[in-house]
Predict the 3D structure of the following.
Amino acid sequence: MFQDYLARKSRENLDTLTGEIGNGLSALTLGLVSPRTEKKMYWWGVPSVGLMGVSDFLTLFLLYYYNQILGLSAVLAGLALFICVVFDAVSDPVIAHWSDRHKGEFGRRIPFMLVGIAPMVLSCLALFVIHPGEEQWILFVQLTVLMSVFQVANTVFAVPRLALGVELYKDYSKRNQLLGTDRIFEIAGGALCLGPILLLMPDWDQAHLYPWAALWTCFLLGWSLYLGTVRLSAVERNLLELDRTGKSTDFSLSTLLREVRSLLANRNWMTLLIAFLFFGVNSGIQTSDQVYLNNHLFRFDPRDLFWAIPLQLGGGAIAAFVTWRIARGRNKRNLVLIGSALSFVVSQLLIGLMAVDYYFGYGLMPDAGGGVLSPLWWIWAFHGGLNGAIWTFFMILVVSMFADVVEEHQASTGPRSDGLVLVGRNFVTKLIASVGVLLAGFMISWAGFDDADTAELKEVAVYRFVVIKVCVTAVLIPMAIVFLARYSLTEAQHRANLRKLGYER
């Protein structure tokens, strides 16, 4: 039945193989995705609506919901997320290699993508709907198990999907366009997911609204993943399966270990991997605390965030639109180093200045708590837009750098391993970011949030937390930049690899 379904969908969607999207589909992205974009690039980007929507939703609400709403201690919540992400990170290389070596009538990627959709949607919904008990150990087990299922299902879908896009577009500059298009869909997904939630949620402690918010998020996730996957079903079956270069090796743990060893010997891959060790720890700490900062530092309610969406996400959308154009003919590494340096300066600037005001009384920043259109709200919104633009610029190019290692690795070893090469970033980001999440849980607890039962105590706790965040970034980001500077793969070398493999004449 499953094979018959895939066969029917691949026949129905043959039009995805060729042609441009035209004005109609471009209009759905407000023209940010050009009408001249290839259909297969467009439909490859569609699942990012749900993937980024659910990522933003969980990043914003999950830790706060389990800690402040359900009552799970911040340390146990951080430990639960640490365990599930470590489990997922270890499974990443196996799933990636299995996808690389899978042989079937419908290609290497689409079957995995379809299998991952249902468990991802259901486990995400269950996180906010199922409540078997209020004891600490029950909440801990619930969070650990459900997030483990979600993370593994996410890997089953996301890793083959990214590998599919990289295999479709091998050109040095075209990959930047692919990832820029993807980022536009990610930004749209974040806005579509969080916009209605923030508008309808009067404050952060409305426990009865969280299940409804999860239901909306999961609907968006399932719809976008299914739509994009079935539209791409014809692409792999009728296009990529004609190219058997580097795809003859079967799946086995011995070949997985052999290819991992060869990747560990690849200087460019290892350089990016080590850089992401530092980015991962920093990311895990920085992304687990947004509701704490919004509620107790800026004192914004959800609706204040809603009205800032155009400014907050607009910077990222503009960056996604122009990055691949700026990068055309330029060295990706040099641009990434510029983006990293800018992020180092900008990312913690706002909360750092607020901490200086709090501890030293300089009066540099407006007062918190003024709500939408207050002076602090404008500064916060524009800072978020600038930060989003820099981060978008950085991520498009650094993922493209990882993708270029695919052909370098293939040229030196023979097998084509898109998934395994690309999963290195996922693996180390998840594994090390889980350490960051665990540390964030300890930091939140140490700062005093678990016992802060008055507004005054929560204010003291949040400023303690801000000081740690700023110090961590000041150490980790420069260390990551040092390793990024060692990446040496250029456009000329990439084209030489493509010619060697027969992809380019």
The chain is about 75% helix and 0% strand. The two ends are 42 Å apart (CA to CA).
